[in-house]
Amino acid sequence: MVVVGGGFGGLQAVRSLRRAPVDVTLVDRRNFHLFQPLLYQVATGALSPAEIATPLRVVLKRQKNVRVVLGEVRDFDLDHRRLVLDALANGDDGLVIPYETLIVAGGSRYSYFGHDEWRPFALEIKSLESALAVRRRIFTAFEAAEIEQDRKRREAWLTFVVVGGGPTGVEMAGQIAELARDTLSRDFHSVDPRRARILLVEASERLLPAFSPRLSTRAAHTLQELGVTVLLDTSVVDLDEESVVSKGPGGRSTHVPTRTIVWAAGVVAGELSGALAAASGAALDRTGRVAVGPELTVEGHPEVIALGDMVSAHDTAGNEVPLPGLASTAMQQGRYAARSVRRRARGKSSEPFQFVDKGNLATIGRAHAVAEIKGIQTSGMLAWLIWLSVHIFYLIGLQNRLLVLTRWAFSFVTRGRGARLITGESAAPATAGTATVSGSESNS
Amino acid sequence: MVVVGGGFGGLQAVRSLRRAPVDVTLVDRRNFHLFQPLLYQVATGALSPAEIATPLRVVLKRQKNVRVVLGEVRDFDLDHRRLVLDALANGDDGLVIPYETLIVAGGSRYSYFGHDEWRPFALEIKSLESALAVRRRIFTAFEAAEIEQDRKRREAWLTFVVVGGGPTGVEMAGQIAELARDTLSRDFHSVDPRRARILLVEASERLLPAFSPRLSTRAAHTLQELGVTVLLDTSVVDLDEESVVSKGPGGRSTHVPTRTIVWAAGVVAGELSGALAAASGAALDRTGRVAVGPELTVEGHPEVIALGDMVSAHDTAGNEVPLPGLASTAMQQGRYAARSVRRRARGKSSEPFQFVDKGNLATIGRAHAVAEIKGIQTSGMLAWLIWLSVHIFYLIGLQNRLLVLTRWAFSFVTRGRGARLITGESAAPATAGTATVSGSESNS
């Protein structure tokens, strides 16, 4: 059988099949599992990429029934039960992999609401590369402000706009505010980073819509204390390299000069969803998610399971079952998919997928978070400790746990950020860094 | 005064001026100091970039007489005692910085012996970006071999050629061998990484020419035990994307199919050396280094000090004083330059620079190194412990020391490498990683 996608859902499916009498091929574009919930910390220099990414071959080292292939799905050939891949490592653009059962866990991406021309100016935090690009822009903005002579241009460099008030937007706004107020506060000569403006723009009437209104208000309040300007009922109507135009309550339009825009709005299904729908004839909803039945299978193809952010689940009556777009959801579905495969191998039919709500967590800043678990709402330090424990627990590998804890301990005590590097616009300029290094062939 | 370059020499000069009655502007292309002697460990996935790079503003946080400017020198205007910079952060291409004293520490780069067309195929390990590009190629090669059907092409993917038998070449060859034999040995299904061929090509008759012949022999022997084929008296005469042609002892020519070539030969001065020589009329030697006098000043410009890998030092009689291209040399010269500036501020003349040989260290593999300190030669475990202690000591910051020690401890025990990521060919493909992630907007 074949699993496409080494994210939370796909990887969980593979791991849950470790004692199953099947051979599994795991296909992913990347050679690592990315712990996406902490990606915003890479974007703000708090963590370094390798600390939240674990090579798939390391995770699956001891699981003998798995083969890992680096590749991108080019075609779902459902009739012949085979995938056609672009093998990324050697450039072989037609690697055919047959399957009996297929699990697709293609994840989500950001949509720009039909404004793909905004993409280059309003960076998303989705891959390690895009997180590093955001990191580069944020820290470059402070460097630019330091040498900028013109007051207006300097203010634009010191204005940061985060679009989208979901967990990622809230976390990014909080982190940028702490960067400006604490980490960088005394690092510059000509500018005072504490005077940076951080705007968080949310189209609906409250932040964190997955939480209760009380916690939404709490989050907004904490962000304001950190120095973030929270703009609710406000939509972005235009943006470019130098500004954002938004429309606030009452239709009032505002033009904000800024050089740094972070995009965290409009989650839609990843590309694989559309491809799978086209191949199977299954329906897509308005956020591009492919419809799956109560057993997470694609209509007409009981051998094809799809899960995670790319699907909209339906019950036996055909009604949509709304599920939160969380790692927890994907992991439960991954475990369920593996159980289905094992049951089928023993000739049993599978039971419908049952979602268990494990709760909701979002961090806002140093020692501040909001949590809603089994009906219990909490915020502040306690929620933050829960957030911290859960994230350390779900990180893969003892080494990364130790490294992340070390970085967090230092950040907590010193308010510093250990990974504040501005790294390459392009991957490898031939002589990049030449001016910066002495003792190149050094060995002492 | 102005210091150009935040490498070992430049940064040491700035730090040694912390109590001097001068205002210092430090100019660098990058916002961090890079600990170059461990860059090969980034290239082989043992360490993550931020662990060997410290932001200059963090290093100099408490030093109030320093201003840091991100910029690239466009012009040394020695007559008017001012620098013209391309300010990298805001794109201002004509930032003028006047100085009374100028210290230039521009470092070195690799030359391809007049074959710049080899550069794209034989990557150097010089900047963080180029180290990550090497990392990508090495780990992609194993992934490609795993899916390659053709035996000859598979063998080419599993052949690694390192050019240059200095410390970096020796370290890279040893690391790739350990990767293949230990770290990756059981990670693949179709190929056995232990069958990888690693060739180390050195034009002269021995490795590590800065060490005694006995230790050179020892290093070659250790590498061979690790599975590296050491080719001495052998020059690269041609190379391209798929092969290396070398000429060995007796003029025998060999054609080796390979997809991964690492370049670690031909260290020459960085670009700033030529620019400084052109501006001052000082001589350049055949490796592009600018001549400086016994006080490290450029002829005719006692206010301009140059140091580190970009200079060739001369004594009062005008004879060249050969100095090793080590971090230690640059740091001693940086301290000396700062002392000169302080003496001049008190109206005293400076004394000639005196080099103190601190010894030479090179690591070959796990628990193997060679060391030559004050005439004492040692190799093996003891040398490796010295190497380890010295490197941890010179790393900047307690946090990075702890992180590096943690990674090394895990690598030592598990023979794993925690940062084996294949990351982006370009910085931020808009939807990169889409296929790999579930639970994108996750917050639990």
Structure description:
Two copies of one chain form a homodimer. With 444 residues, chain A is of the alpha/beta class. The first copy, chain A, has eleven helices and 26 strands. Among the domains of chain A are: 146 residues, FAD/NAD(P)-binding domain; 150 residues, FAD/NAD(P)-binding domain (3-Layer(bba) Sandwich). Chain A is 31% helix and 26% strand. An eight-stranded mixed sheet of chain A has the order 7-6-5-2-1-8-21-20. A five-stranded parallel sheet of chain A has the order 10-17-11-12-13. Chain A has a three-stranded antiparallel sheet with strand order 14-15-16. In chain A, strand 22 and strand 23 form a beta hairpin. The longest helix of chain A has 20 residues. Chain A is globular, with a radius of gyration of 23 Å. The relative contact order of chain A is 0.15. The C terminus of chain A is likely disordered. The interface between A and B is large, with 133 and 133 residues.
What is this structure, in a nutshell?
The structure is a homodimer of 444-residue chains. The first copy, chain A, has 444 residues and is of the alpha/beta class.
Q: So what's the CATH class of the domain at 116-265 in chain A?
A: Alpha Beta
CATH third-tier fold name of the domain at 116-265 in chain A:
FAD/NAD(P)-binding domain
Low-confidence stretches of chain A: 426-444
Q: Tell me what portion of residues of chain A adopts beta-strand conformation.
A: 25-35%
User: What's the total number of strands of chain A?
Assistant: 26
Radius of gyration of chain A, taken over Cα atoms and rounded to an integer in Å = 23 Å
Approximate helicity band of chain A: 25-40%
Provide the CATH architecture of the domain at 116-265 in chain A: 3-Layer(bba) Sandwich
User: Order of strands across the biggest sheet of chain A?
Assistant: 7-6-5-2-1-8-21-20
User: Biggest interface, and residues per chain?
Assistant: A-B, 133 and 133 residues
Structural class of chain A: alpha/beta
